[in-house]
Amino acid sequence: MVATAELPFLDRPRDKRLGPSRRNVPIADYLREASRSFRSNITRSLLTMLGIVIGTGAVIAVLAIGNGSQASIASRINALGTNLVTVNPGRFRSGGVASAAGESSALTFADAQAIAGLKPAVVAVAPQISKSFQITAGAQNTNTNVIGTTPSYTAVNRWDVSEGSFFTDADIQTSERVAVIGQTTAQTLFGNAAAIGQTINIGGVGFSVIGLMEERSTIGPQDNNDQVFVPITTAHYRLIGGPSLDTSSLRSISVEAKSAGDIPAATAAVQGLLEQRHNIGPSAADDFSIQSQSQLLQVSTGVQQALTVFLVGIAAISLVVGGIGIMNIMLVSVTERTREIGIRKAVGASRHDIMMQFVIEALLLSLAGGLIGIVAGPLAAFAYGHFAGAAIQITVPPMLLATGVSLAIGLFFGVYPAQRAARLDPIQALRAE
Questions:
Q1: Which of 37, 152, 227, 283 has the fewest Cβ atoms within 10 angstroms?
Q2: What is the pLDDT averaged over residues 90-96?
Q3: What is the pLDDT averaged over residues 165-193?
Q4: In this predicted model, what pLDDT tens digit does every residue of 12-70 receive, in sequence order?
Q5: pLDDT of residue 145
Q6: pLDDT at 188 over 90
Q7: Residue of higher predicted confidence among 270 and 430
């Protein structure tokens, strides 16, 4: 039997405005009763809030990882230059059959030279041809991508040389056998030895290494640092081959606009010029595509956001499961404490008192689970960032949101058990064993 001394709220004076069945009970009394119930069976309480802990922590961790990934990708794309426009070969049809994207030979070196004349919207142009080659240096070898381009490549793509120098216009004119290599390529071929001045063999042709590119972050599966750059004329005449450089197929053309605000004008000018050069009518589809960094950023951000929302939705299921667990345990608690409820009602506790007691117990469980999840979530995110080498970004709003949702779930799933306890008939409850 529960003594009246254990029910401090029964000693409080009645609030006449609430009528004879209501008492003006301070919230502190309900909290003390809820905490006493929590401590009476600590193991069951911890297991009950486990779903809330997992759900809250998972939501915070997923948002931290997703936000960090978005920020990292955005910084990498912006590092390439906000005024960069890339022209790629696009789809075209021949005999009713559509080629795959990138297979069209629509872009030529002559196109790149024409685009370079679109002043002042276009500042510089860097055409690129490429092919994969087996590269050897002494006993070491690697298979990597060889890019033929022009000296403006570093300025257009904002990618500088860390050691040595990039090739010059004079090297383009004379088709010099010089190469600038990436950090990964240098490590593979020469280890810790100096790469500048070394000779590498590309497709049976010897090249002198004159420069080493700065290390650059990678977007996507391809390692940006595992590449070799050679003069575009050298790549065409000595490696890839073809009748004329002007008509050779380009992998892409990098275009530097005057500023980020000039990108729309530069894009329109490039599109109009290429449509004119390729004899494309107003109603015909272009055989090339133009993409700016802002478009790439929007696509990447959209994909990341969709994935983050999907993962947060999965994590939120744990919160619902945790709420169901709280409701189940509270129903069990009502059954176990039926006689106690009857005694409380017999000595003057109202339905409101009983309901508030059980609702606050449910809220206390969900709040405790949410607070533990606030600690566990960032720890899980930091652990993932450390072992996966990924960027994370922890902010306060997701923590507040997860805590608020956990409280709402505790309230939602705690109301039904509380109502069931409040509606118990005191006579029937006192007869319970």
A1: 283
A2: 48
A3: 94
A4: 444 444 344 445 556 777 677 767 777 777 787 788 888 888 888 888 888 888 888 77
A5: 93
A6: yes
A7: 270
pLDDT tens per residue, range 302-320: 777 777 777 777 777 877 8
Strand duo 140-149 + 161-164: pairing: unpaired
